[in-house]
């Protein structure tokens, strides 16, 4: 059994630059695309704790409306994205199952905000997620993950269904696409900057 690979500081902080590290949570219900989004955008090899789902999980995790799901996050995902010479985002993806909710409190500590991924076909699954983020006092943006073949939803109807404040950003994204994921995170960061001014 070999030793674990060591992390080189240069993988996480660019040499010579003074950077502000910003902790962002990427949250959402089970099977909404959190791991995919972080994997599509991270400039380092993302840390992923995806494991194969077992038959035991079938009785615990609701797979209704989820096709082809064979793995699930069992701890967290982590990625890094530099958005300017001075600001770097550290992305923490939370597991979506209810049984992992106790981890969220620790992960929320020190976070500036959250990107809440939503499946428009399973909006009700987003209510507990949004409740938790609000309970932790985090500002957030909604990113509607547009799945293949799913109809585009009217933003006003989504806002009403999710009971969002008027200033809460809502964007549509494709978690598999780097540019789309970057645009969603950029929307969140701009919103957070506006909130701190």
From TrEMBL:
Protein family membership: Belongs to the GPN-loop GTPase family.
One Pfam family per UniProt: ATP_bind_1
Alphabetized UniProt keyword annotations: GTP-binding, Hydrolase, Nucleotide-binding
Native organism: Streptomyces plicatus
Protein name: ATP/GTP-binding protein
InterPro entries: Gliding_Motility_GTPase (IPR052705), Gpn (IPR004130), P-loop_NTPase (IPR027417)
């Amino acid at each position: 059994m070999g030793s674990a690979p060591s992390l080189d500081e240069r993988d996480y902080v660019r040499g010579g630059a003074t950077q502000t590290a910003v902790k962002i949570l990427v949250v959402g219900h089970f099977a909404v695309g959190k791991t995919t989004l972080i994997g599509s955008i991270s400039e380092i090899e993302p840390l992923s704790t995806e494991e194969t789902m077992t038959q035991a999980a079938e009785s615990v995790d609701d797979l209704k409306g989820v096709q082809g799901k064979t793995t699930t996050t069992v701890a967290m995902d982590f990625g890094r994205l530099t958005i300017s010479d001075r600001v770097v985002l550290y992305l923490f993806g939370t597991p979506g199952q209810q049984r992992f909710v106790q981890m969220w409190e620790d992960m929320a500590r020190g976070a500036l905000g959250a990107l809440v991924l939503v499946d428009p076909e399973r909006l009700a699954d987003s209510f507990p997620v949004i409740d938790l983020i609000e309970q932790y006092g985090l500002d957030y943006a909604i990113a509607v993950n547009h799945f293949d073949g799913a109809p585009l939803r009217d933003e006003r109807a989504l806002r009403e269904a999710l009971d969002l404040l008027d200033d809460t950003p809502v964007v549509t994204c494709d978690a598999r696409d780097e540019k789309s994921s970057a645009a969603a995170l950029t929307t969140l960061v701009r919103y957070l900057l506006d909130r701190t001014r």
